[in-house]
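Hi V.,

You were right to ask for the full record rather than a summary. Here it is.
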Amino acid sequence: MGLLSHRVERSEIKAGDHIYTWRAGYAYSHHGIYVGGSKVVHFTRKKEAGAAGLDSAIAVSSLLSQGSDECPTFPDCGFQLPDSGVVLTCLDCFLRGGALHRFEYGAPPAVFLAKLRGGTCTTAPADGGADAAVRRAMHLLTQNGGFGDYDVFENNCEDFALYCKTGLLPAAAGAGADGEGIGRSGQAASAVGVPLAALLSTPFKLLAAGPLGMAAVTAGVYCAGRYITDIGVRKDVVKVEVEDLAAHLGWRRAKAEEAAVKKQQQQQPAPGKKASSRLLPLKRKREICV
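Predicted structure:
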């Protein structure tokens, strides 16, 4: 395991490896499962979904990560079912000229925390070996619906690769107490954790002795946030067989919709209370005039 860099040569990777490459000047990374034969299975937007209406980060990530329609190397490069975001491309189209890196599993907590950027390793061990990762990836590639809808924070390409390697998913929609509203991916936790760390460290200004103290507090909160959202530490994850994944995702979607309706109902005031609040001031005004 590389402490400073996980960069590897093409000759070093093997089928079942979780690989990634940095995009847009190291702004974010794109992840996939290497399935052998210089081919990668990864997760992006669904084929029929256009960029209109999508978050800009999702649209840019999706467009850059898609395989070329005219790949000179492999005729099947860019294979993707219409109702799925899981796509098969050659390694060259996946990298898009970027460097190749290998994601590490079973990282000790000290090593995990030493990584300043998320999305490079996890404390969770891989499950079932290389064959299991390839089997999960290929199953999702050939099944309509694939890995569900792409979401940059809750269901992205790193989440897909993490599932293929571990078989773990959040038990319910919306994550849990350890990571509400955040998926399993390290870079999503980092993206949320940077502003969150600065915000949470504000109450500690009186305890921090100057700028260095504030920096130390902010760094501590940031690292703690990254650690507790790691899939190897969180308590709200369950093992889901790939054959049962479609049913699990459907259950999560139904629970999310139910929770959204319930929240909306709670926010709407009762009709009787709303009417009485408008009538009381008018009644008092008339009494004063008399």
